[in-house]
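Table 4 source record.
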Amino acid sequence: MTQIDTSKVTTTNGIKIGQKEAPYTLIEFVNLRCPYCRQWWNEKLDLITDEVSKHNLHYVIKLFNKTSPSLILGNVMHQYVPMDERALEIITKIYDTQNEWGRLYSAEEVTHFAEETLGLVKQSNDVVLDSIVKEAEQASIRFVPTLIMGDIDFDQKISNDDFLALFN
């Protein structure tokens, strides 16, 4: 991991779930093509949504466009995620089919898959997606998933017990 400057990470841009006044804020930088991001989602989403429902957590998802060949198709899928609570269902749908669309060869094929197979509608979120890339650069965030709570950064390997301990 690089030295992340958590002071440069904000809740200004991203998908915001829960009350911003909650005592804890979890910010995650993810790319929807990343299998480790999918692992994090599958293993922790129930814990996260439970904490959100208790008004204990403000959850901010930052879809991080990457230029690496293995993640670039995720950038296409990012364009189909709304910046509101509907995002949870749509991200789940995208992760659930990651093995299918992740094998495609072009942005055009992924666009077709998103629209025709998943029934998604392209969003107008380019400005937000660009601002997330800039924020990540300023904070020295290079890898996905990168997860931040307060001034602590971690990755998907954190155990459920250690994750929940961050709330104490």
